[in-house]
Fold these 2 entries.
Entry 1:
Amino acid sequence: MKFSTALLLACGLFAGGTAAQVADVEQLPQLYIEAYRNGDADRIASLFAPDASFIPLLALPRLQGRDAIRAYYRRSITNSRSRNITPTNQLVQAYGDVVVRSADIRIDQELLDGRQVATLARVSFVYRREPQGWLIVHHHQSVQPATPAAAASAPVPRP
């Protein structure tokens, strides 16, 4: 599986904004992170299905379609000199030709003015196996709460 990732990268199957031919769903998170780190909005968009939906971290409406997703990442990437995503607490749930992956992430950015910004968020991706390979069909991001909600572990009071 590691060999196929290297082969995909070496062959440049992400050029031109066409759908990536990803044979193994396990490749997608790293390919997404590498493309984000490199500031390659076209490569990011190529990992999404043409009709994919995306709910971004920012206060924006849901984005629909690969072109809207590409435009979002182009704008987002131009606001920073460098960027990285570090996932933790990952959960993968496989349902045949559909896989759901969720994680906590830390987004580190060096902005154009030199400031360093770190954002803690939660993300989910829904992947679907298509004839041309695995694609992201939905992506959702939300800001991680400052502290875990105490109410989530507390017993629910009875009326």
Entry 2:
Amino acid sequence: MADEDLEIDMKDLERRMQGAMGSLKQEFLSLRTGRAAASMLDPVMVDAYGQTTPINQVGTVNVPESRMLTVNIWDKSLVGKAEKAIRESGLGINPVVDGTIIRLPIPELNEERRKELTKVAAQYAEHARVAVRNVRRDGMDQIKKAKSAGMSEDDTKLWSDEVQELTDRMIASIDEALEHKQAEIMQV
């Protein structure tokens, strides 16, 4: 019976590790590579109506040109807060306010900024690795509990190896995604 419960938990562990990978991919979308993309503003949160709200829920994000983003803020009272949120987001973009429209000219990335962004990408990847390792730790704790509930030594070793293999696979895919993103950022 403990073996069946643990197998269900393996699927849960894999789902949680995939969640960390999905979160990493979302964070990578926010890193700019020299071209404008609406997803760059996904991590920007605006203090609207007493709570933090994603910028795409207070205005319409558009990409009129390859080096320009615009945000058409629906509520005029939120324009200043949205501008402040963009400035403080660490994207390195200087917003220009024109009524309820915020224009975001995307500057050409210089070598120094590219290296800075690769470091940010590496930090995002490290957070994902930590999340995967935390899931691994939870899995190992479940195995220890099953062992104390009567699981054999051989089964314990088998499940531990399986959890470690899953962890190694996820870490490798995180590293691969990081390499790809860093190459994309450094491409001129």
